[in-house]
User: Fold these one by one.
Assistant:
Number 1:
Amino acid sequence: MSAKWTAAPARRELCAFAAVGLLAYAADLALFTCLRGPGGLDPLTAKVLSFLVGCTVAYAGNARGTYRHTRPRGPRPYAVFFAVNVAGALVQLLCLAVSHYGLGLTSQRADTVSGAGIGMALATVLRFWGTRTLVFGVIRREEGRVGSWTG
């Protein structure tokens, strides 16, 4: 681990990442609710649109807040950010599928624990790592490498 990953900066980074995530979640939930209710859209269309908005809010918050010192350029960082968030969503779905269909835990409580509890925790770790390393390149910069992430 780099010397720059000390307690105070790490705590600030984690808190900022969490705050941006909560804001993005609120935007996703609010838009989904509006699109489903007054908007009258079907649930999948509403969720796709609200997910895209939530990802955009999260990217903007992280780019202008949490990782503003990295100065991402062009469409590539957003595309990678979106891919990381899709991977996080798939982790949540996988946890739910394993619990519900693989283990036979079919109650609403079990689905909530596996999808919104365990799945969300694992997805958040993946999103934090992916956002920090693949999108904004914090670890590479701390190690002194600024070139390609492949080497």
Number 2:
Amino acid sequence: MSTVNQTIDVEVPVSVAYNQWTQFESFPEFMKGVEAVEQIDETALHFSTNVGGVKRDYNAQILEQVPDSLVSWASIDGPRNSGSVRFEPLSADRTRVSVDIEWEPETFAEKAGSLVGVDDLRVAADLDKFKDFIEKRGGETGAWRGTVAAGDVEDTGLTAGLGSTSTLPPIDPDLRAAADTDPAEPTTEPTTEPSDRALADEDLRRGQYTEGDYGAERVGDVPVEDLEGDYTVDEDRGGGRPKE
């Protein structure tokens, strides 16, 4: 097995450096030889690489992931490799990124390169590109704040980003005032001129009653005995009247 250990300090907060590293599909931006990374789910990745003219495709799994602290992985097929990236805050705006990788060279060129330290040089160059990439941007391209332990997602991290902003429409202040009033306590309405809405409501109430045998009285105010009797249609009047 070949091992690589490299460290770099970047001038961004630890959360920015960590968040960017969780965006695995952006690896081709700063990793030479990585042509594409597809994130299949929270812990499964598919890599397409081209190192020294040797193209490979393989799958890897995230084993451990702790926000602002650690990301570790291992390949599950293809070339054997595993490693971890650790994030250490040095100050509010400075972070140390440490990479440890173990892998199994397969071709003669890979084995020879490992012996002379080519792997270390390549990883160091990738970290330099990562430093340049994140410092020029000044912020991450995205983030996943979940937690992974032994290859399983323990926390998706979704609740950490939830705000308290409601999408419901604002409450009508008149309705809120009515709801806050204790129905057991009488209220005194201020003496003001009736509004246009109040006048319209009054017209609507008046429209519920019609002139008839009882004038403009509400039906509910008429004595019950005056309403008794069997009603038939008076063809002359076109209305109802009690039989005699």
Number 3:
Amino acid sequence: MSADHTPSPAPSSTNAAPLGYAGDLTPQQAWAWVSAGQAVMVDVRTDAEREWVGFVPEAVPLAWKQWPGMAMNPGFDDGVRAAAEGGKKLVMLCRSGVRSIAAAKRATELGAEAYNILEGFEGDADADKHRGRIGGWKLRGLPWKQN
């Protein structure tokens, strides 16, 4: 954060054209923006992932693809428009930071200022193919709940 306590974007956020979206943020940067009211978090994981693995209470639940079959969510575009209403910045969260890139690109195509949250909710898989041990929203100790 800068001296005036305004969260700063990640360095890649200045390269929006090559990325196709506004840039990448660490989980901590994204939370700073959301908690300061400077951005809206959009959780693009499936309903099942949020229900079984955990969720960020402040996030707008808006699946990029739906389980089962991982078909595109036909309501995604309308949900993005609603979340970005009034010109709000969007920070996109998925499991590992991959689907959220595609979602940020689509949100940008729709006219939103959209960022990808690096590492996602669970982070990368370790050598044993387990998530939650290398990076991610949960590992960083940021707010989340589980049903």
Number 4:
Amino acid sequence: MNIAVRNRMRLIAPAALAALTVGATTAAAHTSTVTPAAHSVTSQHHRPAAKNPKSMLDTWLRLWNGDYTQAPDIISPDFKVHAALLDGGDGSSVRGADGLVAWISQTRAAFPDLRFTLQIDPLVAGHRASVRWTATGTYAGGFPGATAQPGTTVTFTGTDTLRIKDGKFVEYWLNSDTLQLLNQLHAR
């Protein structure tokens, strides 16, 4: 790979990671098939917030799989993200349930049928939870630098680490195998 291509990949990789972190959000629990809900999470019909970390992770997984209805139940208004975003940001612009849902929706636009499943049981220790996931979806087009044809199936992996405070997630660290995704998208 020549230097120019390698330098472009270094610029694209953080952006791809941010887009994929959506997939990374494969919180915990088991595989769940969910019908996507409306993108707005400002609803008056919230279910009681899950206080059990494993239940919260199950809801987290459903959130990343497109069910946004319970986001306010598990996401603190002070929620912040630590990840490289497509715009070059560090994730600090993603705030609260509405910000997270908007970010996930943007990611799912390129991979509408994206499904996260757990590779192993989640780890919960004190006020932190971590989950290793696999995301699989069909590329719909529009990913910056990608030359793969729409309809290409992609699979990538990652780890989500979350901090819990007062029964809600307040911080999120994403580590996703962006190179794996970029290779499948034939990104240049």
